Amino acid sequence: MNKDLVKIILVTAGAVLFNLVFWNEKLAINTVLFDAFLLCALFFLYPNARKSAAVNWLLLGHLVSLSMVVIHNTDLSKIAFVITLLLVAGFAEYIHRSAWFASGSMLMNVVMIVASFAESFKINKSKPANRKGIGRFIRFAIFPLILVIIFFLIYRGANNAFSDIANRIGAQLEIFFSHFFDFFSWQRLVFLLLGLLITGSILLKSKLDYFSTRETRMNDGLQRSRKPMRQKRNGAFFSFVEMIMGKMASGMMALKNENTTGIISLVLLNVLLLIVNGIDVDFLWLHFQYKPGLPVYIMVHEGTELLIVSIVLAMAILLFFFKGNLNFYKRNKWLKYGAYAWILQNAMLVSSVFLRDYYYILKHGLAYKRIGVLFFLLMVLIGLVTVFLKIWSRKTNYFLFRVNAWAGIVVLVLATTIHWDEFIAGYNLKRRNTVELDVPFLLSLSDKALPLLDTNIVALQKRENDTRVINVNDGQPACDTCFIEQLKQREKQFEQRQKEYTWLSWNYADAYTKQYFRKRGLITSIH
Amino acid sequence: MSEMLWGIVFLLIALLVGFFITSPLLIIISPLVEWSALMPYTNRSKMTWLIFFLSVLYLLIFIGLVSLFQSNFNGMFSKELALIFLSIIVVEFIAVRTTQKSLYQLYEQNKWPQE
């Protein structure tokens, strides 16, 4: 069968399937149906893709994310599902090694989808005259149509009988158009178009393989190159460096001067960070105590902000000094030692922030941002290791970004395997006697956490009421059953939402919560 | 009769004002036409791409105007507004089709070597 025809059939079938399984539904078991179709179509259109190791690893990650959409049904699993699906398609259709370039290719697919889809329709060479005829007809029709409209309006004003007939026809047309969208749900048509765009973007490869071509020129290993001074001067960055360094940036001794500047900078930065780390070791690692009156969150936020600034600066400075021929300079030994010490000190800073976060979790329990900080620290550690590898083995920035992107994908997929809302609720409720619980926050967690909250709500309400008795003058209105009422409300909303869905929205998380409430019945009221 | 004349006058004024109000859109439309010429696709596909992205452009302007005058998106998906938008797309389609000859000339000048 003609490949273009197959593409049209597959994209149209995908759009129809998208419309059938996702209309008024949430991403759940229906995702498996749509995904199975997409993957089959993708490997049918690009059969060589199965031989690629990158595609197979990404496929594994994608299937894990898909399973987690059905099991946990969290936003994170849905995001990971979409990202991994796009990457599978990107690596299957183009030749890539980096997830960044593959993402670029997929973006190109999205932008070019309309042209790619139109390209699949073969033009019949014998018909141009016909098309020209249509164009000419439109051109010829415009002026007479304007004249007809003007004279129609004049005759309508002048002749009452003609006006009556015109009014009746107008009324009928009005009725027709007002009911037009009752017969054809235009929202559904737009949804079909969305399906067409999504399916087409994934299945149809763009003819513009800009990112694929760019990536073929990239290497992991850094190569020594000689750039003419004129070419160097064209870069804005070099002009900036020349502005500060003057002749030292462009003379015969430029590389030596760059090396000296790098050593001085790294020594100073290392000394500065050593002081900061020394304070952290003494204050956080050895003699940490919760200070009464000083909120722990201030410590955590300050630490994280410092780390972000420090790491970004560290990366930028190291990338600047080790961007080119300084990697091959014979006397760069001390510059490299300075860089390794800087990386090590940043790793220590990561540990200090981890400790801050840990102390905060001990005091207040888990929350989204606290878990987010942990993931950020993990990615920072991976980033530092790769920067070390880049300097040690003379690798390019391309290598650095490529490896970090893969690490990010692995972390993202692994993070989907945990239902974080349930985990947060379970962790905090288990330690309700030792941590300061934020009950309104717990009540805002997703539906999967509702059974856990329901089991503990009476105790939580009693605790809250007892606290209010102690702080009787806090000015808040008394409410003995607020939390229980809120939980009841959540349960009602959950049931209401579930009624709107069909089997296509089935997922384990909702099924578990539904089952729990079916068995449990009404939430126990407080006495 | 006078109402009719006023209607025609109003129509002409709307046409004139509309022409001046929408003329800054050329800043966006012109690069879109140029980009479409640079794409390695057949002329017909390039034109389809152009029609689609012009529709997206109108949709964005439409959403912007609705949010400006209504300050929310309630009722944005009403039948009446959908009809207005549909008519804009039809007019835009006719506009692109009637300039097909000039567009094809531009596309032929920027033809990719592999085509």
From TrEMBL, chain A:
Pfam families: DUF4153 (PF13687). The chain crosses the membrane at residues 6-22, 27-47, 53-71, 98-117, 137-155, 186-204, 261-285, 306-325, 337-359, 371-393, 399-420. It comes from the Bacteria. Coiled coil: none annotated. The keyword Electron transport does not apply. Keywords: Membrane, Transmembrane, Transmembrane helix. InterPro entries: DUF4153. This is Uncharacterized protein. It comes from Niastella yeongjuensis. The lineage of its organism: Bacteria, Pseudomonadati, Bacteroidota, Chitinophagia, Chitinophagales.
